[in-house]
């Protein structure tokens, strides 16, 4: 075999190897977009047109700094492009990865949703806004008094005696446990986690991937 044939043969083999690597990488990416079955989303706080063709489910923890960052960096664009336009709706599910404070915040949010669903999302954002920017996971900042102050600012028409009872006596614990079961059913491992039309995304901060999955759902 002369030198030219050797070079050509080498180039062909290299091209085949590159092609195989790309195929297997893409296959891995497709497989990593895990399909999950989400049931019992009724009576969960949902933003957007209830008849929207695409359903986005956010699994979030009010104690989670990454959830706060997602709400500030990704959510506004998502709302503008897809929720406000009626193409997608967003459902929020409480995750309890950070212990008692996660539970307290979840109980409070469920109480507001029960009493004043129209102001749930304002209260929801208010909790994240109150999260200290330099928070460590073990720092204590969620208290009943703090949650009451947020509710006074964003859901002033609720019954505050009932609200405090729902937090201190765990009046909405059954609803929080419904969320916790959903978290376990789909094996949520980190927050925030996004599920779009049953597909669990690898990176909730990758807006291109989020948009691509939504667009895929819109074509069906």
TrEMBL record:
Positions of the Thioredoxin-like fold domain: 42-216
InterPro entries, per database record: Thioredoxin-like_fold, Thioredoxin-like_sf
SUPFAM superfamilies, per database record: Thioredoxin-like (SSF52833)
GO MF term set: isomerase activity
Keywords: Disulfide bond, Isomerase, Membrane, Oxidoreductase, Redox-active center, Signal, Transmembrane, Transmembrane helix
Residues annotated as transmembrane: 6-25
Range of residues in the leader sequence: none
PANTHER family: DISULFIDE BOND FORMATION PROTEIN D, GLUTATHIONE S-TRANSFERASE KAPPA
Family: Belongs to the thioredoxin family. DsbA subfamily.
Protein name: Protein-disulfide isomerase
Organism of provenance: Lederbergia wuyishanensis
